Amino acid sequence: MKKLLSLVLLMIFTGIVQLNAQTPDPALPELAWLTGYWTSTEDGTTIEELWTNGSGYMMLGVHRDVYANGRSSFEYLRIMRTREGIVYVASPGGRAGTTFTMTENKDQKVVFENLEHDFPQRIIYSRSGDTLTARIEDESGEKSMEWVWTKTKPKF
Fold first, then answer.
1. CA 55, 129, 76, 120: dihedral to nearest 10 degrees?
2. Is 7 left (phi over 0), alpha (psi -120 to 50) or beta?
3. Cβ distance 80 to 86 under 8 Å?
4. What is the pTM of this model?
5. d(CA 120, CA 112)
6. Where are the beta strands (DSSP E) in 52-130?
7. What Cα–Cα distance (Å) separates residue 97 from each residue in 2, 6, 43?
8. What's phi and psi for 29, nearest 5 deg?
9. CA distance 85 to 1
10. Residue 76 in contact with residue 91, Cβ under 8 Å?
11. Which residues contact 68 (CB under 8 A, 6 or more apart)?
12. Over the stretch 57-85, which tens digit does the pLDDT of each residue have?
């Protein structure tokens, strides 16, 4: 019995076992407001972004622009809960991903940053009702791009 107690105390001390530790929710409830199908049309270009609900410590997203001439571009996106925190990974055109770390999340606004990246260095999503805004910017906020979508019922 003494050996068992010593083993349990050693495991607690080394962090193998944590008493009263909260296990993070694999559904990412703090970002559930981002879930959905978002669309807009600007100068003949249809702009779509789709975010799945959180599951398995991850949300998946895809962004697609369909231009008036029929051509298109896309980006794979994911938000993941890691040991270091929540991260956003962007893979434009399916290329290797760039990781941004969540630095702020409150009142349906989330900010992800990677100050080592050339551009963007910051990605910001915010929601107001059925409107979702995404903004990418440099560290100063002077160079930026912004998209505004409306929540839409998917046709698929």
1. -120
2. alpha
3. yes
4. 0.84
5. 10
6. 58-66, 72-82, 85-92, 98-106, 109-113, 122-128
7. 51, 45, 29
8. -60, -25
9. 39
10. yes
11. 43, 44, 45
12. 999 999 999 999 999 999 999 999 999 99
